[in-house]
Design brief:
Bound molecules: pyridoxal-5'-phosphate
Shape: globular
CATH superfamily of the largest domain: Type I PLP-dependent aspartate aminotransferase-like (Major domain)
Largest sheet: 7 strands, mixed
Number of strands: 15
CATH topology of the largest domain: Aspartate Aminotransferase, domain 2
Number of domains: 2
Distance between the termini: 62 Å
Strand content: 15-25%
Number of helices: 13
Oligomer: single chain
CATH architecture of the largest domain: 3-Layer(aba) Sandwich
CATH class of the largest domain: Alpha Beta
Order of helices and strands: HHEHHEHEHEEHEEHEEEHHHEEHEEEH
Strand order of the largest sheet: 2-8-7-6-5-3-4
Radius of gyration: 22 Å
Length: 403
C-alpha cells in the first residue's frame, strides 16, 4: 500500500468559496427574480482583457512556433528567456530596486512558486504567517508538516502585522499590498521586518503580486528597495493582477545572489543555487508565446496600456472607499490595492454580514473569516467589477445601512 502524506488531514477544509457558492445557489433558487440583479464583489480575478500590445506579441510568437526556422522547443535553462529576464530587471530598476537578470527565474505564476519554494527549506522551521492571509502560505506549509505561527494583523496595527522581537521565526511570509486586507508596508515598516529577519537569520518570502497598484510614495514596490533585503528576502511576483495574466500564467521569483544561509554543518549555501536546482529538476519553463507576451508588458507601450486597466480598478476602489467613508464604516485598503477590507457594521460577524448583503441587496462579497481568525468580523470587497455595477452596489449599500 502506498503511504500517503497525512499532513493533508491537518488542512482546514476549503470551506470559504464552496460555502459562498452554496449560499448563493440556495438564495437564487428561492429568489430567482431578485437573483438576476446579483452583483459580485467577491471576485479575486481581473475582468479587463490583456493589453493590445501583449496580444500582438503573443500572436506573433505563436506564429513563430509554426515555422521551422523560428520554432522553439525546450528552453535551455528553464529559468526564462534572457529577453524577459532583462526586461524584468529593467522594470525593477525603474522603481529603485537593483535586481539582476540572473537573480530572476520566470514561472507560471506566483501561487505555484509560493508553494514550491518550500522545497528548498528543511523540516522543523518556525514559519511565521500574518493573520489574515492568502491561504497558500499556510496550506503549503501544513502539507509539508511545518509548524505555522501567526502574527496578528488587527485594527490596532492597520491590518499590517509587525514583528514581535520576543518571537523567533525562520521563515516569514509577507504580502504587500496585502490580500485580503489591502494594507501596505511603508519603507520604515519593511526596514523593521528586514532587521528582524537578519537578527533571526530568517528568510522573508515576499509576495509582491499587487505592487502595480501602489500609488503612495513611501510604499516600496519591492522589498529590494530596502537596504540589506537581498541578504534575507526572496520576492515572488506575478503578472496576473498587473497585466490581466490570470488565465495566461506568468510570474517571476527573485532569489538574490547575496542570500546565503548556513547548513547544519556550518557551510554557506546560496539559496539561488538550490532553488535553481529545484526548478531545473521539477519545472521545464514557461511557454515561449507567454514569455513574449510578458516581455511586451514591460515595454513603455505595454506599461501604459496595463496602467489603463489598473486605473479603471482604482476608480472602483475609490467609489467603494467614498461610500464607506460616507457611512462611517472603518476599512483598510483601496488606496494601494484593489481590495477593501471593512469592519462589519453593528458588530456583525462576517458570515452574518455576508447573508445580510446577499438577502437584502443582492451584493456578494467575501467573509473575512475565510482568511484567518482576525477576519471574523471583517469583509472583503474587490474593485475588479465594472464602474456601473460597483456604483450600483454602493447605492444599494447606502440605502440599506442608512435605513
Ligand atoms: C492573485 C494573487 C497572486 C497571483 O497568483 P498567480 O498564481 O500568479 O496568478 C499571488 N499572491 C496573492 C496574494 C494573490 O492574491
Amino acid at each position: 500500500m502506498a503511504k500517503l502524506n497525512e499532513n493533508f488531514n491537518n488542512l482546514k477544509k476549503n470551506y470559504l468559496f464552496v460555502e459562498i457558492a452554496k449560499r448563493i445557489k440556495a438564495y437564487s433558487e428561492q429568489n430567482p427574480e431578485k437573483a438576476k440583479n446579483l452583483i459580485r464583489m467577491g471576485i479575486g480575478d481581473v475582468t479587463l482583457p490583456l493589453a493590445p500590445v501583449v496580444v500582438e506579441a503573443m500572436v506573433k510568437a505563436s506564429r513563430e512556433m509554426g515555422v521551422k526556422e523560428t520554432f522553439r522547443g525546450y528552453e535551455d535553462s528553464g529559468a526564462g528567456y534572457d529577453f524577459l529576464r532583462e526586461a524584468i530587471s529593467g522594470y525593477y530598476k525603474s522603481f529603485g530596486a537593483d535586481v539582476s537578470a540572473d537573480e530572476i527565474r520566470v514561472s507560471d505564476g506566483a501561487k505555484s512558486d509560493c508553494g514550491n519554494i518550500i522545497d528548498i527549506f528543511g523540516s522543523g522551521n518556525k514559519v511565521l504567517v500574518t493573520d489574515p492571509a492568502y491561504p497558500v502560505y499556510v496550506d503549503s506549509n501544513i502539507m509539508s508538516g511545518n509548524d505555522v505561527i501567526f502574527a496578528d494583523s488587527t485594527e490596532e496595527n492597520g491590518f499590517a502585522a509587525m514583528p514581535d522581537k520576543n518571537v523567533h521565526a525562520d521563515l516569514i511570509y509577507l504580502c504587500s499590498p496585502n490580500n485580503p486586507t489591502g494594507s501596505v508596508y511603508t519603507t520604515e515598516q519593511l526596514e523593521e521586518w528586514v532587521s528582524y529577519a537578519l537578527e533571526n537569520n530568517a528568510v522573508i518570502i515576499y509576495d509582491a503580486a499587487y505592487e502595480a497598484f501602489i500609488t503612495e510614495d513611501n510604499v516600496p514596490r519591492s522589498i529590494y528597495c530596502i537596504k540589506n533585503a537581498k541578504k534575507c528576502a526572496i520576492e515572488i511576483c506575478s503578472l496576473s493582477k498587473t497585466a490581466s495574466f490570470t488565465g495566461t500564467r506568468c510570474g517571476y521569483t527573485v532569489v538574490p545572489n547575496d542570500l546565503i544561509q548556513k547548513d547544519s554543518k556550518g557551510n554557506d549555501v546560496r539559496l539561488a543555487e538550490i532553488w535553481g536546482r529545484r526548478q531545473g529538476s521539477k519545472f521545464n519553463g514557461v511557454s515561449y508565446p507567454v514569455q513574449r507576451a510578458a516581455e511586451a508588458v514591460f515595454t513603455p507601450e505595454g506599461q501604459e496600456q496595463c496602467r489603463e486597466n489598473i486605473k479603471y480598478y482604482q476608480e472602483n476602489a475609490r467609489i467603494i472607499a467614498n461610500t464607506l467613508d460616507e457611512l462611517g464604516i472603518k476599512y483598510t485598503g483601496g488606496v494601494n490595492s484593489p481590495y477593501i477590507w471593512l469592519k462589519c457594521p453593528n458588530n456583525m460577524d462576517s458570515w452574518e454580514f455576508f447573508d445580510m448583503l446577499l438577502n437584502e441587496i443582492q451584493v456578494v462579497g467575501t467573509p473575512g473569516a475565510g482568511f484567518g481568525k482576525n477576519g471574523a468580523n471583517r469583509f472583503r470587497l474587490t474593485a475588479f467589477g465594472t464602474h456601473e455595477k460597483t456604483a450600483e452596489a454602493m447605492e444599494r449599500l447606502k440605502a440599506l445601512l442608512k435605513k
